Structure formats: C-alpha cells, structure tokens
Amino acid sequence: MNEEQRMLKQVIKEFAEREIAPIAAKIDQEGSFDMDIVKKMGEMGLMGMTVPREYGGSGLDRISYNITLEEIGRVSASIGLTVEAHNTLGVGHIYELGNEEQRRKYLPKLTNGEGLAAWALTEPNAGSDAGSLQTTAVRDGDHYILNGTKQFITSGHVAEVFTVMAKTDVTKGVKGISAFIVEKGTPGLKMGVEEDKLGMRGSITSEVILEDCRVPAGNLIGEEGKGFTGAMSILDRGRTAIGALAVGLAQGAMDECISYSKQRIQFEKPISSFQAIQWKLADMATEIDAARLLVLRAAWMEEMGMPFSKEASMAKLFASEVAVKASVDAVQIHGGYGYTKEYPVERFFRDSKLYTIGEGTSEVQRMVISKKIGL
Predict the structure, then answer these.
(1) Residue 204: φ, ψ to 5°
(2) What are the residue ranges of CATH 2.40.110.10 in the chain?
(3) Fewer beta carbons under 10 A from the terminal one: N or C of the chain?
(4) Which pLDDT tens digit goes with each residue over 131-161?
(5) Residue range 166-212, pLDDT digits in tens
(6) What is the CATH number assigned to the segment(s) 228-372?
(7) Cα separation of 243 and 308, whole Å?
(8) Distance, CA of 62 to CA of 68 (rounded, Å)
(9) Using N-to-C axis directions, what is the helix angle for 345-352 and 227-263, rounded to 10°?
(10) Nearest residue to 253 via CA among 133, 344, 148
C-alpha cells in the first residue's frame, strides 16, 4: 500500500469501529436493515467508491476499494455485503457498461447514500447456471415488457434502482441475454419474499417479481444480447470484492481470538500460552495474509487493466474458505462461549458461509480456474 492507501485504511477502520461495530450485533439479532448507516457511509463517500467524481463518486482505485471493504467486513459482514453489492454490482454495472445519459441520470443519486442499487441475475432455477435464466424482455415500441422472477437479490426491498438481466431472444441462449435499468415504483415491479437467512441477517435478501413491467427502451444497458458477457465481467470484480470481505471477517475472527485467549484463564494461565492455541492462531494469521495478498493482486491487476478473471476466482475461492475455517476455529478457541451470542465469533461463523456461495460458489471458482489453466 502507498501512503494514501494506508491513511484510508486507518480512516475506514476508525469509522467502522465507531459507527458500524456498535450496531452489528443488533441488526443481526433483529434481522433488521439500518438505512441510517447507509446515509452515513454515503457522506463518507463509500457508496460510489470507484465511480469518478464527475458522477458523484469518490474516484478510488481498486486496491483502495478492496482495502475499504476489508475494514468494513471486519466488523459487520452484513453491512459489508450491502456496500459491496451496491458498489460492485448495482452501481458498477451502470458505470462500467451504461451510456453517458444513464450514468448522469442514475449515478449521482446512488453514490450519495440516499438510494441503493440492486443487481438481479439469479433466479429460482438459474443459480450457478446463470445462462439458463427465464426472465424475458419483449420489445414493444419504445418500451420493453419484462416478465420473470429473480431470487436472492441483495437489498431488493430497499433498493431504488435495479439492474435486471433478461432474455431478449430466447433462441440464442446466453447470447440472447440483455441488461436493463428498472426503477423502484415502475408498474409491474414488486417485491416477493424477504429471505430469513442463516447469516448476513442485517442485509436484506429479496425475491423480485416482474409482471408485465414496462421499461423504457432507453434503459437497455449496452446492446441487446450483450448482457451476459457484461454480467460476467462485473462478477469478476465482485469476486475480488467478496474476497476482500472474507479477509475482513477472518481478520475480525482472529482479532477476537487473540483478545479472548489472553484473558481466558485455564489451568492457572491464559490459554494464549498453550501451544495448541498458538498454532491455531499462527495458521490463521498465515492463511489470512495469503488470502489478503491474493485479493490485492487481483485488485492491482484490474487497476492495471490486465486480464484478472483467474486471479479474481483464486482470491474469492481461497479467501472465502479461509473465512469459514477461521470462524470455525474462532468458535473452538472460545469454547462454550463461542457457541453463545455473547461473543461475535458466533455471528462470524454464520456469516462466513455465504462467501463460499454468493457471486459464484467455490465449485464455480474451481471451474473458472481450471479453464484458465488450460484444462
């Protein structure tokens, strides 16, 4: 990191500990969403981090973005996921692939924290096989008529703007998929079930239903049939970002373990003096550092304009599985207390699993890596 990035890391760490950490357990236990913290993050410039200033963003480089996600994810995976899905997917798709009119219309009100952006690709029967989605978009004069159901959409119930992938030509498979901007309040757009989840309970996950939803033709992002390719490029960025969140969670788990192990007395001495605990934490520290470096490498390659799909998948795969392992070990180190809600490691344990599923499962990442190494 350069000096600016180190300063940013410290500023975000202090903000996260001051503003996010105090509400992390509450929103998890209540399964509630806190829009006030979103507005505070908007004031901090965290809701349009990689968007240029001319569109209301902060203009951060990709490394700084991932450093920021790690620090937020260290104290709250739920809020970290909200920030990541908004920045990388919702806002990112409009900025990276939208036209100038779309950028100027939508980005300023999304980057200030007043409204959230959601990204709608997944469907009940189209998860890892995203190309099999069934939502359709039929041209009708100067509009498209969208019909279908999207599932597991982050921030769906609270979003102001949706980027929706739909088939404009059902005969062409993935080459018939297009992307559309759909505004909240558009007739035919409605929210379905709000998922009751194992973890990430402070982040809303929604079913989104489109029934004869009329969208202006000007809301088509890019060209017809280019939506799937565009979505995959956005997912590459998302995988690096999920890796950063996973590193943050793992770091948070280790920090809790170090503190607890120095205070917990057994057999007349702190358990941090036992080799069994020391070695668990030594392995944890090594794996977290390796994961962090994989994430930063992918972010650096993206910043340099280099192909980074393989590296993004490696970072996401390794970091997400490190997060799960670190949270499991954290519960073990805390013993019986780790199984209670008195300590945050129980929440880390539940939250961590999503990182191996969202934005491409571990199995999908291995498929991508296998292809990239010539198999």
Answers:
(1) -80, 135
(2) 118-224
(3) C
(4) 899 999 999 999 999 999 999 999 999 999 9
(5) 999 999 999 999 999 999 999 999 999 999 999 999 999 999 999 99
(6) 1.20.140.10
(7) 14
(8) 10
(9) 160
(10) 344
Give the chain's length: 375
Question: Coil, helix or strand for 338?
Answer: helix
- The answer to whether the CB of 81 falls within 8 A of the CB of 245 is yes
CATH class of 118-224: mainly beta
CA distance 25 to 13: 18
Active site (catalytic) residues = 359
**Which 3-state string (H, E, C) describes 86-141?**
HHHHHHHHHHHHCCHHHHHHHHHHHHCCCCEEEEECCECCECCCHHHCCCEEEEEC
Give the tens place of pLDDT for each residue, 225-266: 999 999 999 999 999 999 999 999 999 999 999 999 999 999
What is the fold, at CATH topology level, of the domain defined by 3-116? Butyryl-Coa Dehydrogenase, subunit A; domain 1 (1.10.540)
Q: What is the pLDDT of residues 264-320, one digit of tens each?
A: 999 999 999 999 999 999 999 999 999 999 999 999 999 999 999 999 999 999 999
Q: Residue 307: what are its φ and ψ, rounded to 5°?
A: -60, 135
State the amino acid at position 207 in one-letter form: E
Q: Over the Cα atoms of the chain, what is R_g?
A: 21
pTM of the model: 0.96
Q: Which two tokens stand for residue 324?
A: 């799960």
| Domain(s) of CATH 1.10.540.10: residues in the chain | 3-116
SS3 328: helix
Token pair in block for residue 277? 């605990």
